[in-house]
Input
Amino acid sequence: MKGVSSTKLMYPQPSSNHKHGGNGISNSVSYRRRIWLVAFLFFFAFVSILTLHNPTGARDPSGLPSSSASSHAAVGSAAAATSWPTPLPALVFDALVHYAVASNYTWKMEEDGLRAIAGVLRRRGPCNLLVFGIGHETPLWRALNQGGRTVFVDENEYYVAHMEARNPGLEAYDVAYTTKVREMPELLAESRRQRRGECRPVQNLLFSDCRLAINDLPNQLYDVAWDVILIDGPKGHEAAAPGRMSAIFTAAVMARYRGRGPVDVLVHDYDRAVERLCSAEFLCSENLVAASSRLAHFLIRSSVGPTNEFCTSRTTTAYGAATSSS
Output
């Protein structure tokens, strides 16, 4: 019995943790919960990454795009289609012209000239429109060219600021003219002498030293492909006024330099000597489309004609009339 008596019997004893309220079991449960939480977060992140990298969108069991995906694509296509400039509705266009004609403002443009310009804007708009001169019709030209870009140039910086304040968003710039109406014969003669140099028809006016060139506008305006150019300024009613020699020359060069197609050039006050003679010299009679009592409409084709002459045949009549009046 010695072997039996010498054997040591082991009796289970309560653990110390159990003495303190069973925290061992609760810690084990908490640990398993953490494992499940981490696993769930990992699975959620994995699914999210797969969703972000799936470019085909939702699909039905047949493998075709679902109606939801198709509707989103349709909305995107419609938005892209409506990104093009929207012209002014015809009813609004006609109403604006009607009220402009019916205005009793003293210095308003005559009806036939106003309607002719409106007709060009209806046909070409929305377009890139450059206007020399700011006046009573300035808001009208801007409104008729809705969806396009309309830029105004004027010699009076204070009037430019005044019109900008009254017409928020108006794009207008002031320019310093260095010419006088009485200098027209001399300026025309000089431009002929430099026809193959500084006063050539095709050039970037930003770098021109021709006396008739306007080269102090913002640089980006010289790179615009203008569709319509309206010359209704600067002042030219007296000998000391700047006259429109520079505006007509500049318009003729711009129309040939960056034109992406025919450029409509409209000259107001065409009944005056400066406007008539300079138009014949730089816009050319072969480009004359129509003329009323005070408005001339020229169509300049940039790819047609010589590169060192404005007109296919030199307008000696305009030159002779200009020099004889000196």
Q: What stands out?
A: Residues 23-52 form the longest helix (30 residues).
